[in-house]
Specification:
The complex is a heterodimer of chains A (115) and B (115). Chain A is mainly beta. Chain A has no helices and eleven strands. In chain A, strands 2, 4, 5, 6, 9, 10 and 11 form a seven-stranded mixed sheet that branches. A four-stranded antiparallel sheet of chain A has the order 1-3-8-7, with no helix packed on it. In chain A, a hairpin with a 3-residue loop joins strand 4 and strand 5. Helices cover 0% and strands 50% of the residues of chain A. Chain B is mainly β and 115 residues long. In chain B, the strands form two sheets. In chain B, strands 2, 4, 5, 9, 10 and 11 form a six-stranded mixed sheet that branches. Chain B is globular. The N and C termini of chain B lie far apart (41 Å). The relative contact order of chain B is 0.33. Classes of the chains: A mainly beta (115), B mainly beta (115). Chains A and B meet through strand 5 of A and strand 5, strand 9 and strand 10 of B.
């Protein structure tokens, strides 16, 4: 099993450009999450999904959109990138959210720089 | 929403000594408290977790304690080794309005074990 994978690993964007980050998991997990990690700020939840076709806002959703058309994939989109979106983005997945097997498994991260 | 405070932000210990990291949370409904370890340039990985119906849990050199009344929990690492050097994140899980549970992370503690 590959677990959770993310593409791309690195990306540099100019202000105003758009891009999509792809997260894929092969563990048949229902729940998927997008976090951003900034120095000294920990991990902050951007959006999450409780199942195929569903998405919900997290703590810092502004400037991002997501889609979960297939159970194994969770896409994070930036429509018009801003320097404030320079960050490391982590995707995670879990089998459940509130019961047993609620451990979140993280992907390797995408380092995004917006100039 | 939930607020998780983590202290200290940096911690240096001599190899073989113990390390303690403390977190407090604000929402008394939080019921699950995982700890993640993140090595430099790597993804966060779960090292231990505790549920609200348990006061203490131990796994070899790592232990976590939970005081629900005071709303704080702590990570204890004994006999520290250089490979314990990493950033450690605590988190608290609380039910969202959508009915699923989300993690709120502390800002992290950078642990350095000096040989």
């Amino acid at each position: 099993n590959a677990g959770v994978t993310q593409t791309p690993k690195f990306r540099v964007l100019k202000t105003g450009q758009s891009m999509t980050l792809l997260c894929a998991q092969d563990m048949n997990h229902e729940y998927m999450y997008w976090y951003r990690q900034d120095p000294g700020m920990g991990l902050r939840l951007i959006h999450y999904s409780v199942g195929e076709g569903t998405t919900a806002k997290g703590e810092v959703p502004d400037g991002y959109n997501v889609s979960r058309l297939k159970k194994q994939n969770f896409l994070l989109g930036l429509e018009s990138a801003a320097p404030s979106q320079t960050s490391v983005y982590f995707c995670a997945s879990s089998l459940t959210s509130g019961g047993l097997n609620r451990e979140q498994y993280f992907g390797p991260g995408t380092r995004l720089t917006v100039t | 929403g939930e607020n998780v405070e983590q202290h200290p932000s940096t911690l240096s210990v001599q190899e073989g000594d113990s390390a303690v990291i403390k977190c407090t949370y604000s929402d008394s409904a939080s019921n699950y408290f995982p700890w993640y370890k993140q090595e430099l340039g790597k993804r966060p990985q779960l090292i231990i977790d505790i549920r609200s119906n348990v006061g203490e849990k131990k796994d070899q050199r790592i232990a976590v304690t939970l005081n629900k009344t005071a709303k704080h929990f702590s990570l204890h690492i004994t006999e520290t080794q250089p490979e314990d050097s990493a950033v450690y994140f605590c988190a608290a899980s609380v039910r969202s309005g959508a009915g699923s549970y989300q993690l709120t992370f502390g800002k992290g503690t950078k642990l350095s074990v000096i040989p």
